[in-house]
Every structure is written in structure tokens, then in C-alpha cells.
Amino acid sequence: MSLAFRDVACMRGGRLLFSGVSFDLGPGDAAIVTGPNGVGKSSLIRIAAGLLAPFEGAVTCDADKALLTEASALDSDRTLIDALRFWAALDTAPAPDTRIAHALSALDLDALAGIPVRLLSTGQRRRAAIARVAASGAPVWLLDEPANGLDTVSIARLETLIAEHRATGGIALVATHLPLAIPHAQEIAW
Amino acid sequence: MVIALIRRDLRRSVSSGGATLVVAFFLLVATLFPFAIGPDAALLARIGGGVIWTAALLAALLPVERLVGPDLEAGVFDQFVVRGMSIALVALAKTIAHWLSFGPPLMLAAVIAAALLNLSADTLLRVEIGLLIGTPGLAALAVATSALVAGVRGGGAVTGLVMLPLAVPLLIFGAGSLDPAGGAGAVKLLAAVSLVLVAGAPFLAAAAIRAGMD
């Protein structure tokens, strides 16, 4: 199981955002993509997710992926638990209900499970989206600005969640402009 | 998986007013014609089938914008792609859900419209058969159009311009099937057009959605 970039370049709107990005992540590894706004962090995550084709180079990944972007992809008119269930049912990992229960408690969302998604605050919605990733059971996590809108307690929960994921052999690729404590993570910057 | 997608879309359609708006608009358009043409029962009976088809086409435009655009914006399609799901299959599921939410209600409303327009039972039967065959094609076209205009600013105005010309074959053969003498051929052509749309439009929609992600 691995996620690898080989000399990947990204062109957006006729502008070369980055080129020659290479890294190799195996079980338990993490990489953190840093840099100022507009440098192409989100594009790198989208390339890793297969949503964008690399302009040059190749991306290989032989495991299921879970993606966190700015859009939560949770139906706003449904309750949080139902919105999470929809995605968990589409994921390939077994026992969706257990995975959701674990993700909800890991992000302190138990009390909000029955609340419609549209009533959640920005930070709660972000945590809900992280719960969707955590409940997916996918070995590769691709997180675009996961700490946006989170308070310090929630950031600590996020860091714990990523550490647990890596401890069970998961891979995490995290793009962030906020400092996140991810021990022994490769730094990717250009 | 397809069942889950259909259920999600049906639920969203119901929570946003569902078929009520489409049916109300359909009946309103069908009522405009007697007002505009006058209470000539014989004339209304002659043009009534065509009126129903025109009204159905216009009513089918209403929900088009919210079929794909909101999901694209909310990152739902990103999540489908990351899971390796076929976007064409997703578009087909959307087509089925969309048809379920407007096809059968429209066929029920056509009975009321037929009474308003003084249609004979025989013509009504032909209209219903035509709608049953034609509305799946219309649903497929609606999903493809929705995908095409999803990223466009002011997509609402463009929607009609894109969809109505493409729906003209359905209108021609649908209205043509009402002719008691030569209707059978038109029914077959209507079925052919509808089948081509149902089979082809999901791929068109998928290509448009993928292009919109770039």
C-alpha cells in the first residue's frame, strides 16, 4: 500500500504552480504540504485524489482514498448521522455504523448526530466532514486545510485522529497553512 | 449503490417541493391556451394533445438547474470520483430519480389537462402512452443539460436555450403519435429518440461533470 508522486507538475489556467514534486508514502507515513495561499496546495491534494490530471509526471496509489476539501459534501437538509451514513454505505470498508459511531465520538460530535447539517456552525461542519473521512475506513487520507475553522481542542482531536490512523497503518497527506503537529511527517514545499 | 443514489435524489427532490411545482406549472401552461385561443371546444380538442406536449416540455425545464449544480458545488461529485464510482452511472441514477419525481406526476396531471382541453378518451390514451415513452428521454436530457450549464453564471437562462432545441424531436414524435391514422410510426420513432437519449445522455453528463471539475 502506497501513495507516490513522481516528478508531478501542475498547470492551472496557463500558470505553472509547481513542478518536480516527488514523494513516496508507505503504511504509517504522513506528508504535510505547507506554503502560503495560492501556491497550489489544494491542487496537489486534488491531483492525489484523481480529480485533476497532473500536467507532468505520474501519481500512483493502490488503496482506497478519503478526501476532505473545503466543501463538506454532506446534505444540508439531513441529520448529521444520516448524511454520514449515506457516504459510509458507499465506502467499501465493512461495518459502517461502527465506523461512524467511532468517528463521531472521536470528534466530539455525539450530541449533534440528530441535528440537520445546515444548522451546524462552521467548525462543527468541518469536524463533521473530518468524521466522514474518519468513518470511510480508507487507508489513504487526503486532507485539504483540515484545521480551518477549528478551535484548539478540535485541532488536538484532529491530530490524535491522524496519529491513530497512522498507527493502524494508514497514510495521511495533509495540506495546511496552519501549524499542525504531525510527528515525523515529510515536509513538502516548493 | 445505484439504489442509494436514487433514494438520495428522490428525498432531495421531495424536500425541495418535488413534483408539486412541476405539476402546477404544467397545468398552468395547459390552461393558458384556452384563455389565449378562446372557448372553441372543437379547436381545443384538435390542438390539445400538442398543447399537453408543449406544456410537459416547459414544465420539465423547471427542476433542471438543481439536478447537478448543487451537488457539484457541495463537492458531492468529488467524493464519487474519489471512491472510483462511474460518473456516467451516477448520471443514470440521477436520470431515474428525476424521471420518478416528474414523469408519473406529469402523466396524472395530463388527465386533468385533458379534461380542461376537451380531449377525447382515445387522444388521452395516446398522450399517456407518448408521455410514458417520451418522459424518460426528457429526464435524461434534463440531467445532461443540468451538467452542461452547472458552472455557467446565469445558467438559468441558458438552460432553456440548450435543452428545448434538443427536445424538439421528442415534441415532434410525441405530438405526431396523436394522429389516429399515422400515429404508430411516430410512437416507434419517439421510443427510438427516447432510448438514444437515455443511453447516451449519461455519458454526455459525465463528460460535462468531469470537465467542470478541472
From TrEMBL, chain A:
<dbReference type="InterPro" id="IPR027417">
    <property type="entry name" value="P-loop_NTPase"/>
</dbReference>
<protein>
    <submittedName>
        <fullName>Heme exporter protein A</fullName>
    </submittedName>
</protein>
<keyword id="KW-0813">Transport</keyword>
<keyword id="KW-0067">ATP-binding</keyword>
<dbReference type="GO" id="GO:0005524">
    <property type="term" value="F:ATP binding"/>
</dbReference>
<dbReference type="GO" id="GO:0016887">
    <property type="term" value="F:ATP hydrolysis activity"/>
</dbReference>
<keyword id="KW-0201">Cytochrome c-type biogenesis</keyword>
<dbReference type="InterPro" id="IPR003439">
    <property type="entry name" value="ABC_transporter-like_ATP-bd"/>
</dbReference>
<dbReference type="GO" id="GO:0022857">
    <property type="term" value="F:transmembrane transporter activity"/>
</dbReference>
<feature type="domain" description="ABC transporter">
    <location>
        <begin position="3"/>
        <end position="188"/>
    </location>
</feature>
<dbReference type="InterPro" id="IPR003593">
    <property type="entry name" value="AAA+_ATPase"/>
</dbReference>
<dbReference type="GO" id="GO:0017004">
    <property type="term" value="P:cytochrome complex assembly"/>
</dbReference>
<keyword id="KW-1278">Translocase</keyword>
<dbReference type="InterPro" id="IPR005895">
    <property type="entry name" value="ABC_transptr_haem_export_CcmA"/>
</dbReference>
<keyword id="KW-0547">Nucleotide-binding</keyword>
<dbReference type="Pfam" id="PF00005">
    <property type="entry name" value="ABC_tran"/>
</dbReference>
<keyword id="KW-0472">Membrane</keyword>
TrEMBL record, chain B:
<dbReference type="GO" id="GO:0005886">
    <property type="term" value="C:plasma membrane"/>
</dbReference>
<keyword id="KW-0201">Cytochrome c-type biogenesis</keyword>
<comment type="similarity">
    <text>Belongs to the CcmB/CycW/HelB family.</text>
</comment>
<comment type="function">
    <text>Required for the export of heme to the periplasm for the biogenesis of c-type cytochromes.</text>
</comment>
<dbReference type="Pfam" id="PF03379">
    <property type="entry name" value="CcmB"/>
</dbReference>
<feature type="transmembrane region" description="Helical">
    <location>
        <begin position="43"/>
        <end position="64"/>
    </location>
</feature>
<feature type="transmembrane region" description="Helical">
    <location>
        <begin position="17"/>
        <end position="37"/>
    </location>
</feature>
<feature type="transmembrane region" description="Helical">
    <location>
        <begin position="99"/>
        <end position="117"/>
    </location>
</feature>
<keyword id="KW-0997">Cell inner membrane</keyword>
<keyword id="KW-1003">Cell membrane</keyword>
<feature type="transmembrane region" description="Helical">
    <location>
        <begin position="156"/>
        <end position="177"/>
    </location>
</feature>
<keyword id="KW-0813">Transport</keyword>
<feature type="transmembrane region" description="Helical">
    <location>
        <begin position="189"/>
        <end position="209"/>
    </location>
</feature>
<dbReference type="InterPro" id="IPR026031">
    <property type="entry name" value="Cyt_c_CcmB_bac"/>
</dbReference>
<dbReference type="GO" id="GO:0017004">
    <property type="term" value="P:cytochrome complex assembly"/>
</dbReference>
<dbReference type="GO" id="GO:0015232">
    <property type="term" value="F:heme transmembrane transporter activity"/>
</dbReference>
<dbReference type="GO" id="GO:1903607">
    <property type="term" value="P:cytochrome c biosynthetic process"/>
</dbReference>
<keyword id="KW-1133">Transmembrane helix</keyword>
<protein>
    <recommendedName>
        <fullName>Heme exporter protein B</fullName>
    </recommendedName>
</protein>
<dbReference type="InterPro" id="IPR003544">
    <property type="entry name" value="Cyt_c_biogenesis_CcmB"/>
</dbReference>
<keyword id="KW-0472">Membrane</keyword>
<keyword id="KW-0812">Transmembrane</keyword>
